[in-house]
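Final report, Chapter 2: Outcomes

The project's central promise was a pipeline that accepts a single protein chain and returns its three-dimensional structure in a standardized token representation, suitable for archiving and comparison. That pipeline is now operational. To close this chapter, we reproduce one record exactly as it appears in the project archive, with the input sequence first and the structure output second.
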Amino acid sequence: MYELIVVGGGPAGLAAACAAWDAGLRSILIVERDRELGGILNQCIHNGFGLTWFKEELTGPEYAHRFVELLSRTGVEVRTDTMVLDVTADLSVHMTGPETGYRVERAKSVILAMGCRERTRGAIGIPGTRPAGVYTAGAAQRYVNIEGWLPGKRVVILGSGDIGLIMARRMTLEGAKVLACVEVMPYSGGLTRNIVQCLEDFGIPLYLSHTVTQIRGRDRVSEVVVSRVDENRRPIPGTEMVFSCDTLLLSVGLIPENELSERAGVTIDPRTKGPAVYENMETSVPGIFSCGNVTHVHDLVDFVSAESRRAGEAAANFVLKGPAAGEAVELLNGPGVSYTVPQRVRPGNVEKALNVFFRVNRIFGKSQIVVSRGDRELCRFKRDRLAPGEMESVTVPVKLLEGGPEPVAIAVKEAE
């Protein structure tokens, strides 16, 4: 029996395993379905990683390598090219791989770090024919950066998430012509720095409040039709633009990879589509913890590392000291806020203050983030600007969360 099994060897799993080792666990297993550790970072060859965690600018593979090096100094066992098939509430992990075959390993604690996946064409229901040349942005990124294949030469990108923005620049640098980036919302879903560095610096137009309404082509994409949408995101007749292209990249959102979480009986938050967690990243199932993009989609891998170390330390405490106890307070999203992480907090397990992550549901100018309990305001924080594409956080003193089980809400009020 292992003290800890970590499902996923990407940035979240690596940081969590290292933290659990540092906290005293000595029987740890990482299970990774790919051939090597590092997860999605291995195909993110652009820079901009590590500015917060390592205080220097790194590429994705360099960032992953730093943690792989840290892991190599521990005694953590690693199984790559191994797929986890099931995680049960009694902390049994079912897995299969070419070297080990089908195995069931027992653990005293489990950390879920499976990351997320991209929404596909089928998930958003774009009308038209079904020719070759329609890719998710992440699949195109792997083809270009790892396999050495250029998916197309004339490209339209639907969605302005960070992966789509980065691939607009990457395809341009590889010689393709990116005709447009199309976003159904009236604001971009990516970081401001990526809009500037990946679109504006290369003269690539961004069409907000637009979407692809038809894909044309027989064997290969030949055209896509783009239409303006109204406030209800419905296409407006007569606003069509036709782009002659051979490739359509989809950057239309990420979904936490939570089939294993659900099979284990973990409560899923319908807002984040990931496990609902306590202040220490523990899920509703005792001994199962969750971190990284499987919990909620992050902007920066540096934040994933910090969150995952908290999960690793908590898993170690669970094994060495026993389960955390105490009455929990629910955290609610008020007006202007889409979700909060954590969703529940046990004040007795927080030393001084609780760091709460959240996203807003629209763009705000000068605003105040208000933390309240019922009709009583607990604290507020000023911000000059808030956007859905950028995750926010506030640090709430734990003494404000004490005093009973009444829920605490986080809301945004725009300055008048």
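Archive annotation: The chain has a mean pLDDT of 96.
This record, like all others produced under the grant, will remain available to the consortium after the project formally closes.
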